[in-house]
């Protein structure tokens, strides 16, 4: 049985202890310890391509695996997370807000929070050349169930086209902003040509999952190594995210 823990990160760096939205921060020292532990204890860290092949029954890993994903495309991924991943030779996928490349996380500012800088074009291309994979996180990070259909279609389709022009390759993966989706949104993501999409539903992925509704496990600011491994080994059952302000 292949149980795949798709881990969800956002920002990686040095932070004052956050009062809220803890799943959107990971202190770089803890991140380094988590990645070193994956390597030291022989965890199989795979790409999203391999994860999808397992879900679709085209690949049998013969055991459990881990996937590393990073939402929003913050500049601190290049500053802090990528050097660690590169040193340990661990694959990762970053989901970009395609209409805000080189800008700031404006959707956070609209919620009264700090708007950290996002990766720019040159950084994205350098990361891609170094083996980092990219997917779409829409054009502007809206809640997709709360906007009209023409706008939603542009967010889903145009972000894919824009990133494909930038990267010069197919963009196969989508990530629902704030985990906000319904059957209508998932159908539109499928119609846009994405092969798979990631949610904020907690749990591990496997053969029974719809590729457009892949679950993940959020790694939070306060997670110790013990808590990190607890999530890897115990949090397999599906659970909808709790209500409240979204990342």
Summarize model confidence as the mean pLDDT.
Answer: 93
Instruction: Outline the low-pLDDT stretches.
Output: none
Quickly count the domains.
Answer: 1
Count of individual helical segments: 8
Plain-language structure description:
The longest helix has 19 residues, at 149-167. The chain is an alpha/beta fold. The strands form two sheets. A seven-stranded parallel sheet has the order 6-5-4-1-9-8-7, sandwiched between helices. Strand 7, helix 7 and strand 8 form a beta-alpha-beta unit. It starts with a strand and ends in a 13-residue tail after the last helix. Helices cover 35% and strands 17% of the residues. It is globular. It has one domain: Glycoside hydrolase/deacetylase (TIM Barrel, Alpha-Beta Barrel).
Q: How do you describe this structure in short?
A:
This protein is of the alpha/beta class and 247 residues long. It has eight helices and nine strands. It has helices at residues 28-40, 48-55, 75-88, 106-109, 121-129, 149-167, 183-191, 225-234; strands at residues 4-9, 11-13, 25-27, 65-72, 93-96, 133-136, 173-175, 196-202, 214-218.
What attributes characterize this protein structure?
alpha/beta; 7-stranded parallel β-sheet; 247 residues; TIM Barrel; 9 strands
Topology of this protein?
Elements: E1 4-9, E2 11-13, E3 25-27, H1 28-40, H2 48-55, E4 65-72, H3 75-88, E5 93-96, H4 106-109, H5 121-129, E6 133-136, H6 149-167, E7 173-175, H7 183-191, E8 196-202, E9 214-218, H8 225-234
Parallel strand pairs: 1-4, 1-9, 2-3, 4-5, 5-6, 7-8, 8-9
